[in-house]
Amino acid sequence: MEFGKRQDPKKRVIGISGVVIFHILLVYGLVNGLARKAIELLPAPIETKILDEVKTDEAPPPPPPPPKLDIPPPPFVPPPEINIASAPAPTNTITASNKPAPPAPPKPATGVTRAPVVKAKLCREPDYPAVSERLGETGSVTLQLLVGVDGKVTDSKVQTSSGFERLDKAAQAALSRCKFEPGSVDGKPSPAWAQLKYTFRKQK
User: Fold this and answer.
1) Which of 193, 195, 183 is nearest to 114 (CA)?
2) May I ask the CATH architecture of the domain 113-200?
3) Which of 10-14, 36-40, 197-201 has the lowest mean pLDDT?
4) Where are the domains of the chain?
5) Which three-class secondary structure state does DSSP give residue 140?
6) What H or E segment, with its residue span, contains residue 39?
7) Phi, psi at residue 41, to the nearest 5°?
8) What is the DSSP letter of 120?
9) Which of 6, 29, 49, 156 is 20 to 30 Å from 12 by CA-CA measure?
């Protein structure tokens, strides 16, 4: 070997190129081999399908009929003998008693009855309702008045209406405060009903 001589540059380039190509081939082989193994190691996808439920239209079989049982006839029971004894005919008996007969009811009194005396002139005249006067309501009302033994009215009711409730109430309220001559039975004061009629007229 001779020292001091320079190497040929062409040989040097060829050597470097060979090394580079070798490394490229080595890297390419490694990459392709690993990729193929990775692809081979991956499992294939699993496909699933949903199956429709099979419906059957067949109805369940009917239950078996119940077994027929022979029912024995009921035992014969003879009817009981009934003897009806004839009762003797009733006899009407009259028994005498010493009890006195009940007293006869008292007869109604036949005394003289006098009706109470009721006059509208003896009372204060009823007030004419302002609404009825403005509306021109008129009419006659007949009252039933119960006059007590002192001549005061203890109860009252409308027998015949004037056609207007306001007029009926005004007459009933005023005439019920009056004092009349009471009725009597056998000369003694007695409560009794009496009629009184009052007429509402337009004021001039």
Assistant:
1) 183
2) 2-Layer Sandwich (3.30)
3) 36-40
4) 113-200
5) strand
6) helix 9-41
7) -75, -25
8) G
9) 29
